[in-house]
């Protein structure tokens, strides 16, 4: 873990035999997660992170989400709350569709500042600290949020009263039943940030506890990089709707076990590759300090390597220490002749191009030979609009 990281370095993954939900039984508290997203959020840098719409493929994803939300709103005057808004990319897309009465909330001050530079309304707050008036929103958007929330019941208990009569929650979360088909990095979703692993039925079970039922649901693949895709569940949930949705557990526990087995196999393959490619005692540079790097430093030959520098394009972690080695920016690599391990499976091609565009001729150690071919879920519409 990076020095000063407030989250736990490990946890048990638990599957509930009663409801089928799968989650991280972590020792980190909600306050620890709030601190992490305030101080170390990867979404703080709009140039490198998703959520701001600065990257073309991310902007396309946000536009699709905005279009789905817009289908259920009556007018451009509808009041929308985007929680975990990052750099305001979704708010910008909603504005482009004629919705000008929106507000974004994010725990990161940098993200909120980026929202305001776009002429949008932004508030710095965690979900549990919101002080917004009740019955004031036609729609609350939780896109890529609930998987990060330690106290799900506390969060929804505070959010549902903010909805107007006939208001709705729009929710997107990773589809844990499809993790194994989108295996881009070992245990990509068992990481320091993700706590909750949803299937359609477990998401439905959660919102039912607060009087909400689905009026529209589906699955889709979204981009997680220019060359990679990700499985998502999405849905519109409203009080007093006619649809109750299907009960059941979706076989989530079994799907998670397949994911773990496939992840273990991939980690073994990466370890074998690094065992062949890593230099002896001459030293190596590691580009990237994300979730995959943390796992490679624990489970692969990289743990025994002489690492002379960690590099990260985002300024969020620069100057911090990882394994007593300082994290630097790409510009600090000039003059360092060591091989560079690109510790990313999602952004390997872009990083390699960036290194060469800087005029660096260091030997590159790659973890992936070619882009992954994604398993694409067929779009589903189990509930009709109402």
Tell me about this structure.
The protein is built from nine helices and 16 strands. The chain is of the alpha/beta class and 386 residues long. The protein folds into two domains: 12-258, Vaccinia Virus protein VP39 (Rossmann fold, 3-Layer(aba) Sandwich); 280-365, 3-Layer(aba) Sandwich (Rossmann fold). The strands form three sheets. A seven-stranded mixed sheet has the order 5-4-3-6-7-10-9. The longest helix is centred in the C-terminal third of the chain and has 26 residues, at 252-277. 44% of the residues are buried. The model is unreliable at 371-386 (pLDDT under 50).
* String of helices and strands: EEHHEHEHEEHEEHEEHEHEEEEHE
According to CATH, the homologous superfamily of the largest domain is: Vaccinia Virus protein VP39
Residue windows where pLDDT falls under 50 for at least 5 positions: 371-386
Q: What count of structural domains?
A: 2
Can you count the helices? 9
What is the CA-based Rg, rounded?
21 Å
Q: Please summarize the sheet with the most strands.
A: 7 strands, mixed
Shape descriptor: globular
What CATH first level of the largest domain would be assigned?
Answer: Alpha Beta
- Using the 3D structure, state the CATH architecture of the largest domain: 3-Layer(aba) Sandwich
CATH topology label of the largest domain: Rossmann fold
What is the first-to-last residue Cα distance? 47 Å
Estimate percent helicity.
25-40%
**SS class:** alpha/beta
The count of DSSP E runs of length 2 or more, i.e. the number of strands, is: 16
Strand content: 15-25%
Rounded average pLDDT? 89
Order of strands across the biggest sheet? Answer: 5-4-3-6-7-10-9
